[in-house]
Amino acid sequence: AENDKQCEGCYDFTELKFPCKCNNVSYCSEQCREKDKHYHMRRCAYAEMEEFNRTFRMEMTESSRRGK
């Protein structure tokens, strides 16, 4: 279909119904999500750390602006 995307587990282009909590990758089935879990965990942890760092920098900038 037109909105199909590539599954990170099997690489088929299909409807993806199983997103990772990080929202960076999705899978067509629980089996594909499980199959890719060990590989993706390394990327996912990195993505989560990047988000934490970005949020922390924004909070520090806001605190500086308020004079705290």
From TrEMBL:
Keywords: Metal-binding, Zinc, Zinc-finger
Taxonomic source organism: Nymphaea colorata
A GO term for molecular function: zinc ion binding
Protein name per UniProt: MYND-type domain-containing protein
InterPro entries registered for this protein in UniProt: Znf_MYND
Ranges of residues in domain MYND-type: 7-44
